[in-house]
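Sequence in, structure out.
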Amino acid sequence: MNINVQTRHEVTAIDPEKQKVLVNNLHSAIEYWQNYDQLLIATGARPVRPPLEGIDSRNIYDVNNLVNGSLLKQALAEQQPKTAVIVGGGYIGLEMAEALQMRGLKITMIQRNVQVMPTLDPDMGERLGRALREKGIDLHVNETVQGFEHKDGLAFAVTTDKGTIPCDLIILGLGVTPNSELAANAGIPLGPKGSIRVNDLQQTETPNIWAAGDCAQSYHLVSRKPVHAAMGTVANKQGRIAGMNLGGQYAAFPGVVGTAITKFMDTECARTGLNEREIKALGLHYSIGLIEGHTLPRYYPGSSKICVKVLAEKGSGRLLGVQIVGGRGSAKRIDIAATALHAGFSLEDLLYLDLSYAPPFAGVWDPIVIAARMALKEG
């Protein structure tokens, strides 16, 4: 494709006025300035690693990329650990708990918040927490890690504000932070959580400089405010938008609604839009529709339990958010809600969607629609 790819070359500084970047050739240790006409910053994000005692021990792992995942897999094969502590009960924490438990490890999960999956409301997160405990996960909530006891470069225990937990292996799942220092040092304005501020074309506020992916901010279509949404789906879309504009076409990124999905064993969870905490922060009055139902008609084989929570603005009925926790076949329904949020649907709009029905796939009234009816009654 006639692209000059230079691996093992690190950009260490940007000079926006002269339109140059300072490059360090990691092979030869020679530095030089490279001119640019247009510059795209796509430096991604890195795992949060708080400055705690012992955090650099060799058996404490992040799993944010393929290299780290490969190192962890190798350690599991060679060292045969029996116990693991997972710090953080978000998406990475849940997925690692499932993977490690399937390998026979005894898992302890420590979550600083009152529930796992803090992007859910507490009542929905509690349902997920029960599922973890029922499957043998030793779940500690409302507990804060203070450090790691270690010897000869290996951690052998996690210390918290409530005690000490011995272990052979530790996984960190504390979220990510944007790699935006390069931009900040060049005077490029930043946005939420230190992400690089961009418009809908992925342009920064500095001429001829663009940003996309986990290092850049997004626009939330429901809150109507800038956010940092470090998701692979968002990064891919922003990269496409930036590339089209840099290539001479025109494209605009409309924004996000905060859709995410994961599972632990047979329990699935998903969310989109705003949760109660975020709605309250905006000062909005809202109604709630909360139902417990089934993914299929109860009489049909393979039906699973599902809990759906719908949040809507009182008065206008504008859909604000949806959360789902349930068995197999539950979570992918979140795409109905994500589509509705992108379209700016009200509860009434959602109520009369012409959704498909046949007993092998769904009931006459989808659980999301039933929850919307409950919210409509309240608001």
